[in-house]
Specification:
Layout: E1 2-3, E2 12-15, E3 18-28, E4 36-43, E5 49-55, E6 59-62, E7 65-76, E8 79-84, E9 90-94, E10 109-115, E11 121-125, E12 129-137, E13 150-155, E14 160-164, E15 172-176, E16 181-186
Antiparallel strand pairs: 1-6, 2-3, 2-6, 3-4, 4-5, 7-8, 7-10, 8-9, 10-11, 12-13, 12-15, 13-14, 15-16
Length: 188
């Protein structure tokens, strides 16, 4: 049993007969009344996000997890296949367990959280950013640059990302996996 003081990002807990992962949290100590913790929880079974408030000192059921490094092999329909880099054991995970499956490139390394009680994978932690090649981008039109103009571009994984007008086909760009937004152009 853990309490609200142990809450941190990435913590997996049992709540309402389901397993949730804490995405965001905020300890709030108002001037009047008791302290509380405002959280944003993601269900690891169906991917739904839930806002919840725990009062200070509330007991929560923590789920013990182990993190293992896996390499993404290939997608097959809604299933994504991964291989453990130490034991070479392969697993198949559903698309909705992944945070941003459209940014996952074959050969990419990810951290998979596995429930120690049931040995079932719970979630996949992507790297903070990925570098992908732009396969299609509309040409930028000179004069359309009033302030921070963007255009839609398609990257090698098939994802659509808003990029600045100077990005062209063949450019490699760095993308933030948490928000799916453009970060910078990568020079080689």
């Amino acid at each position: 049993m853990a309490s609200t003081s142990d809450i941190k990002n990435g913590l997996c807990i049992k709540y309402n007969n389901d397993i949730y992962k804490i995405i965001e949290f905020l300890h709030v100590k108002p001037g009047k009344g008791p302290a509380f913790v405002r959280t944003k929880l993601r269900s690891l079974t169906n991917g739904k996000v839930l806002d919840n408030t725990f009062s200070a000192g509330h007991k929560i059921d923590e789920v013990r997890v182990e993190n293992h490094k896996f390499q993404f092999l290939y997608p097959e329909g809604d299933d994504f296949h991964f291989m453990n880099t130490e034991t070479f054991e392969q697993i198949s995970l559903n698309k909705n367990i992944l945070d941003s499956p459209d940014l996952l490139k074959e050969g990419e390394n990810v951290m998979v959280s596995i429930n120690t009680e049931t040995d079932l994978p719970l979630s996949v932690d992507m790297p903070a950013s990925v570098i992908l090649e732009v396969t299609y981008a509309e040409p930028g039109i000179k004069g359309n640059t009033a302030t921070n103009a963007t255009k839609s571009a398609t990257v090698e994984t098939g994802a659509s990302v808003n990029v600045p007008l100077f990005i062209n086909e063949g450019d490699k760009i760095k993308i933030d996996t948490a928000s799916g937004s453009y970060m910078e152009r990568v020079k080689e």
